[in-house]
């Protein structure tokens, strides 16, 4: 184990604890490798009936990948072709695939901030997942804010949210609450943060055949404390579907600008600050991902992330948000009017032939 990931077995429960609190548990390459190794070991261990992943901090489950590392590694190599960057994204996406198809129940306690790479280690497949949110959950795929796109399988799980919610979340990068996450199908149950340790103890002592049902049973008394029908996304779903159902980002923004509701005006204001290019790339990504398998989505995203660092928009976004903290990125191009189809299409051009793709073995 890396110093930033703790692993133990309690009863029949394999317990993984992300433990890099000063960095809000942002994922390093070592953490990705340690998670993968432990999940592979427990996959073959008959004594482990389910896996639960949590954080040692009440501030964040996982705030994403280590973007300072992305910036430094990308800057160090012309064209962003750092070997460490290549390894990180190939191994992170392979981990996302492993989690999605894990053969045992996979329970994620999404307490606190859950963003980017944190979503990737929480959004398992429908046959094994149990995603828990709390009153402290703040969830987002905020990549457009740093000149990137919603990766770690975002093309798959965002494209399968109700209506146009996924397009809204991906193109704007906005943060949502626990109730919103339940409404969007990005979480399964709500449990108060104060009850999480009791939940873990209960699961460790559980003797039944399905720990996912045990989680549902534990969460049942708290159902009324977090109503997805009363969420912001639920209230705004007609506006989201009408505006984000358009075929391109300029049309989406025009529809929002023509809507006088506070939600539409706030959303339009947010979009004017995002990377014009990456909003367009993200919308195309989600349109493609709607008809693709998990493996196909991850292979597409691996192509896209290579192109992203070649292009350099992500390096400028990280500089403005994290390094210099001037919050004044110089996006290129600087307006939606300057984004053309050829520039968007370039992000989807495979850098490798199929037989040499780093994720060619994903099934």
Automatic annotation (TrEMBL):
It comes from the Bacteria. Keywords: Hydrolase. Signal peptide: none annotated. PANTHER family: 3-HYDROXYISOBUTYRYL-COA HYDROLASE, 3-HYDROXYISOBUTYRYL-COA HYDROLASE-RELATED. This is 3-hydroxyisobutyryl-CoA hydrolase. It comes from Noviherbaspirillum aridicola. The keyword Hydrolase applies. InterPro entries: ClpP/crotonase-like_dom_sf, ECH_dom, HIBYL-CoA-H.
